[in-house]
Design brief:
35% of the residues lie in helices and 18% in strands. The protein is of the alpha/beta class. The longest helix has 29 residues.
Length: 579
């Protein structure tokens, strides 16, 4: 099947997506949320499917096979045990059964009917097989270890193993309910954030605390070892409840849960006073303690995988692989030659993984711009309908200099150019960008542009050949895929922290994006010229969206967000709108 056209699909749980793969080449991939505008949309990805087929200029009849990212039957058997055969879970059985009866049990029939293909062309992959295939199929290492960690697939929350050429062996599995992803989600709820949305916020909060409650976090485990762990389930409720992840015993240990939206930092706080005392200090210390224990467990399992493989190469996937602070430590502390994480390492990326697993093909992934681009005529029409005035630039280098000049004066802008990114990270095509030098810029973008919590950090983007000057990276690390995809945290060099106030987190770190020119020439040239103007070839880079919304996809999305925010300028393709 290596050169056949395979459609990969993920849906019905969270972050539904579709991908089209020929051999090892990912032609197109997109999350359904980008089209529906429902964040983390879990519904059948009809818009995403239509897009990937349109991008490849093919019809459903041209598809050789459809790969679904997991086995619904195996997941349903686990759900039966979890809710129908459990005394505590039985209260939710009717509600759970309805969603399965209405759609989840019939995915083969749904895909067959929607695409007009025989059911024999629809294949089910294993959930964690899809996760690891997304990483394996997009890098060319022939030997290494692999690790996947997430909430739960069918009945599995993680696998550890090794591969040699096309052969692989699993050395350990983590079975539900013993899940590092669900542990993190339970603590996300305790800390006052929305599950499957606020885990990134927990990581940001952790930097404000100290891991002084590690012993309490350790009590949540029955044991931990280098090839697995077990949770003490008396602290949790996710195994039988649809309304909460934590049990009363959890609150007895940690105290009352933080109220959502309650004050965390004092108003107008800065880095000189945040450590003294602040309203959320206890919760920050809990977050820091959780992060420390989780990092330790991930490191142990990653080390086990590489020892099993006899290499310094590791493929890593699943939603837990978005923990960028842990990723940076895996790379450095294990001294890996290669740590490869697919840029959409959660369930949306499993659409790609399922298709790659079915084709058996492999190809290095050059960039994550796998979504839709919009034509200049579509852009002009959208701007005209919105009543906006714009200037069109024919010479892209003049445009680069104009945008860099605006940024150097303190303006905050947004870019909607080329194909949008696949995955949760804005990598230059759907980005809000700003001057990284002043700490007050972080406050401005958080409060006045994105309308989100003041403690949330921002990422810097830097040319690859300048990265080691500002960040604690070795030259050999600048090409690692975790930094290419903005999936790794590292220290900002001490001498650079004052000049990178808007992108240096309170603990002196940054989730850096290292950029090669051939990946995104416009963004790269913008960095270079901004550096000529300011002496700092770095920009603050964050996703182009408002709080609670998906990243923008179309010019219409971009214009709507521009109007609702206090952005100073908007660049769509080569059309520049200023206030």
């Amino acid at each position: 099947m290596s050169e056949k056209l395979v459609l990969g699909v993920s849906c019905y749980f969270h972050d539904a997506a579709a991908a089209l793969v020929r051999g090892g080449h990912v032609i197109a991939a997109a999350e359904e949320e980008r089209f529906s505008r429902i964040k983390h949309d879990s519904n059948f990805p009809r818009h995403a499917i239509s897009f990937v087929l349109e991008q490849a200029c093919v019809a459903p009849k041209d598809i050789s096979a459809v790969a679904f990212f997991e086995d619904p039957g195996l997941r349903f058997f686990r759900v039966l045990r979890q809710y129908f055969f459990s005394k505590q879970g039985r209260a939710h059985a009717a509600e759970v059964f309805k969603t399965w009866k209405d759609k989840k049990l019939w995915i083969r029939e749904t895909l067959s009917d929607y695409l007009g293909l025989p059911k024999s062309k629809v294949f089910f992959l294993k959930h964690h097989e899809s996760h690891i295939a997304a990483a394996y199929g997009t890098c060319l290492e022939n030997k290494g270890g692999f690790l996947t960690l997430d909430g739960v697939g069918e009945n599995c929350a993680g696998i550890i193993g090794a591969f040699d050429d096309s052969k692989s062996r699993v050395t350990s599995t983590l079975d539900f309910p013993h899940s590092l992803g669900l542990l993190y989600s339970a603590m996300t709820e305790f800390l006052g954030f929305e599950v499957n949305e606020g885990e990134f916020k927990v990581m940001g909060m952790a930097a404000y605390g100290e891991p002084i409650y590690r012993e309490k976090i350790e009590l949540l485990f029955k044991y931990r070892s280098d090839n697995g762990f077990e949770l003490d389930m008396s602290f949790f409720a996710f195994q039988h409840s649809l309304t909460t992840n934590i049990s009363p015993k959890f609150n007895t240990l940690f105290g009352p849960s933080r109220l959502p939206e309650s004050q965390f930092l004092p108003a107008n706080s800065n880095r000189q006073d945040w450590r003294i005392n602040f309203p959320g200090r206890y919760y920050a210390d809990i977050a820091a303690s959780l992060q420390a224990v989780v990092e330790d467990q991930i490191l142990n399992m990653a080390k086990h995988a590489t020892i099993e493989s006899g290499t310094k190469n590791l493929l890593y996937g699943g939603g837990v692989a978005y923990n960028s602070a842990a990723n940076g430590k895996i790379l450095k502390q294990l001294k890996l030659d290669r740590l490869h994480i697919f840029p959409a390492c959660g369930d949306s990326g499993s659409a790609v993984g399922a298709a790659l697993a079915l084709t058996g093909g492999r190809a290095e992934l050059h960039n994550a711009y796998l979504g839709r681009a919009y034509s200049d005529s579509e852009v002009r029409d959208a701007l005209r309908r919105a009543g906006l005035h714009w200037k069109t630039y024919i010479d892209e280098q003049i445009l680069v200099k104009s945008v860099a000049t605006l940024l150097s004066t303190g303006a905050v802008g947004a870019m909607c150019r080329g194909r949008f990114e696949f995955g949760p990270r804005a990598l230059g095509n759907r980005s809000i960008i700003a001057n990284p030098r002043d700490e007050l810029m972080q406050h401005k973008v958080n409060l006045s542009i994105k309308y989100r919590e003041i403690f949330r950090p921002f990422a810097p983007v830097v040319p690859a050949n300048r990265a080691t000057e500002f960040f604690d990276l070795e030259p050999s690390e600048t090409h690692k895929s975790i930094y290419k995809w903005m999936l790794g945290v590292t220290n900002v060099r001490q001498e650079a922290r004052e000049s990178l106030g808007a992108v240096t987190h309170v603990n002196g770190t940054a989730r850096v994006q290292v950029l090669e020119r051939d990946v995104n020439p416009f963004m790269y040239d913008l960095l270079v010229y901004f550096g000529e103007l300011t002496g700092i070839p770095i920009l603050l880079n964050t996703s182009f969206n408002l709080r609670g919304e998906p990243m923008v996809a179309s010019p219409i999305d971009a214009i709507k967000t521009f109007k609702l925010s206090r952005l100073d300028f908007l660049l769509i393709n080569n059309c520049l709108v200023t206030r």
